[in-house]
Predict the structure of Conjugal transfer protein TraR.
Amino acid sequence: MTDRKDIDLAALRVRLEERRADILAHSTHSEDYRKPVELDQQAVGRLSRMDALQNQQMHLEQERRRAAELDRIEKTLKRMDDDKYGHCHNCGEDIEKKRLEFDPTTPLCVGCADRVSHV
């Protein structure tokens, strides 16, 4: 899987797969909340409709964030399968073990992440 012997790759993979399953479950659960809000002034007052629209937008944003996290997880699992996990995407150096334990999806070492955030 990877040449890194200092990280527990199996445990990190389990965390990622569990998180992926959790994201997919939440996405399915909130599907109804993301549907278009019906315009029926007789059944729903203007403020209630505005509240429904706001709730819909919040659920759409949550789904966008879930999709982005799911994408990061899928890319990380692919890096694991391709023996590229644990190495910085930019410089190729090892990513610190504690950084990977905190966020297994991180593709950058601290130095490269710091340079990217200051650009």
Q: What stands out?
A: The mean pLDDT is 86. The two ends are 33 Å apart (CA to CA). The helical segments are 9-29, 46-81, 97-102, 110-117. The CA atoms of residues 14 and 27 lie 20 Å apart.
